[in-house]
Amino acid sequence: MSSETGFDPALYARFPTRAPRPDEEKEELAHIWCAPKGWDYLTAVNNSYIGLYYLGTAFLFFLLAGILALLMRVQLAAPLMEVLPQAVYNQVFTMHGTVMMFLFAVPAVEAAGVLLLPQMLAARDLPFPRLSAYAFWAYAVGGLCFFASIFVGLAPDGGWFMYPPLTSKAYSPGINTDFWLLGIGFIEISAIAGAIEIIVGVLRTRAPGMSLDRMPIFAWAMLVFAAMIVIAFPSVILATLLLEIERAFGWPFFDAGRGGDPLLWQHLFWFFGHPEVYIIFLPAAGMVSMIVATVARTELVGYRLIVLALLATGFISFGVWAHHMFATGLPPMTTGFFSAASMAVSIPAGIQVFAWIATLAVGKPRYSAPGLFVIGSILIFVTGGLTGVMVAMVPFDWQAHDSYFIVAHLHYVLIGGMVFPLFAAFYYWIPSISRRPLSDRLGRWVFGLMFAGMNIAFLPMHLSGLQGMPRRVSTYLPGQGLALPNLVSTVGAFLLAAGVLLFLVDLVRNFRFAPGGGTAGNVHDAGTLEWLPTELYSVRSIPVVASREPLWDDPALAARVEAGRYFLPRSATGLRETIVTSPLRAEPQYLQILPGPSPWPIAAAIFTAGFFLALTVQAYGFGLASGLFAVIAVLRWLWESDRRVAAERVDIGAGIEVPTYVTGSASHGWWAMVILLIVMGMIFVMGLFSLAFLWSNQPSYWAPPPAFRGAVPILLLDLAAAALAIGGRRLLLRGAAWPVVAFVLSTAALGGALWLDRGQWAAAGFAAEASGQGAAVFALLALQGAAVATGALMAGYCAARALRGLVTRPANTSIDLTMLFLAYAAIQGLVGALFTRAVGA
Amino acid sequence: MRAWAIMLSGLLIWAAHFFILYGIGEFIGDGFASRLAIAALTGVCLAICALLAAAVMRMPPRDFFGKWRMQLAFAGLGIGALAILWQGLPALLA
Prior knowledge:
The complex is a heterodimer of chains A (841) and B (94). Chain A is built from 26 helices and 4 strands.
């Protein structure tokens, strides 16, 4: 067998070990990973708690958005109903879409990842537990405040995609739109924090031997999901920033009368918005792939093809964003490209559907509640997929655009592709975290009500759409043939709600959270590792994985894991820890010390939410203070990290020793920083695209940019900043003060370059409020300013750590990460200076 | 990185092809020169897929995981090539 890291795979033969393990080891593990008490539940960071909080909150938002849907259905049950005034109806449908997409769907699947992945990969926890806690609390606090806006009539009312010019200051002067633009800011932060956690977790904390070809499909799906968030979310982050800046300061990004273009919003939004559908679907598809194999009692058919399909969906979904814009008058050739990609993306989805059907066909399926939900999911999703191929055809899309046909299509896709799989997952995985499984008998009723309700609610919408009923209208006239299909839809919606209500009854009756062990266990006779006996420290010992369904292939594995016969049967350092493995073959590389409970993530989250919400209500002073406290709280939580322990190498089982501290590209921190820089890079690239798009579409507003020769000193300063950052890391060998000095100089060079760049544009007569070009250029400069400020903060943080003797030699992670950030900022400044001068030169 | 680049090569080439096509459509526009450029680009991308597929086939798999990776890369190149051809057709046939 080959090796990826130099680790000798023959060492796996030492497991299972034979010598008995003392009981004190297990007691020590239980003590280190002890359950919280009282207020400590707020400071818990363990994935079992955070995952459940996350999932519970997401489900709460599902219920709230579902109530909004019922209100809409009551209003539309008959012509000219007056249950909701038109203005309130606008808020209700906007909040329904926004909450379902941003506060339920993405967080729910992210929550499932946080809850299930460590157990599925047999890790003690994900690598950044405090980041998970921060992501959850920012989402929960901010999300609840955001939702509360509907109770005071300030909820957004421009549709979940917030198209300008409707959402511009001229047509939406109130703060409703600002609630949306700033309100989802913390959700974006939360989603990206979760994505970083999941990518690094899946690639670096798998059990030894779990090479990529043995990885559970759900983990593959979560990996692609998280990578898609990293690429897609920056676009909506930039879009919301630009629209908020336009509304607050009058920079005309989307104002066609001043050289902006409202279509730019649509490009930026849908570059996120369409992949978002697959961001939601892929984890759910991963759940279905896991469940279908168990209910069919056979291996998943086409594992390799499903992995390929997940990857292909991840790529091709980024080529379909403009199919939401076919009716805007795109150039015919461009329309053709997007139509082709929209049809092509159905191929990988089809591969997965055929694999599920084949698995059910070759196995001996049990039609239990999870099995029924899986089959229902396939039927509904395929129906939605077929209408999706219909609307991928441009002439048909022109007819069906903005009609109830689209409402029917998207609900079939999202309910079949995400909601039914999630309910299947509830019935399937709850026995792994609860003392009692949910009732299969009630579950069948839940499925029946939801399946019938869903189809009765949404099938008639195809008809009402084809009859010409537009979306987002609060009522319709009698005598148009719309009354009957709408009444049937309303009955179906309440049937669907009855199914959800019955599920809540089942949950109340049977769900008993048991993070410390004593769960119902492997009631489905599944084969993957999350069904091993677990406690708060996850598994007692981390097994060597030799197949995709280890529990099927080795029925005695669970007993041996529980007896401590594999890796890390005890705490090697007396602290929370997990094994970091290599990304391809999962070979043990080092022992990561995991941070424990802390109040700082929740403090940082509350202040982050406070920052965004205060800006929304224009309490700028409070917002600034809140932002400052958020930064302080983050720095305080980081202060306790990146510390060496006394033992440089420890035995992680059977005499195999690994280091306890690793720096450079092998470390998990390095990986997280690289992913964060990809996020920043994507925001910047979308900013460059915005500039080029405005130049292409509004040439009459374009003025010649400053000359290229003016950029020479800027480039020299940026290059010097990069050299100082990279050189500073090397200077650590000479002393802890040297890299700090280099970083401070690097930041100064970056600031100087930015000052020169801004000065040249101002001297050339450009102003941010004057034209789309000026606005786009100054927005890019502002992004660079944010990077420089963050770099300065990081340099200051390193200086403080150096003063306290926390910068260890010869290598140190904090120094590594600051170097990476500053080098990136220098490249961004350099590219920005050249690109802005090149466009329209 | 090399391992990931090989595994994802077909899809990466598709992505590059798609975004260049979009750039041509958005920033240059329709016309004979654009269509010629698209034909050339599609041909080049297909050729790269073919060359990479041949290279992947020549790589000796050292174990089961190695073989799995090669098969994934090979299938990815196949699906990537098909998608590239499909993506180029609207401009080439219109």
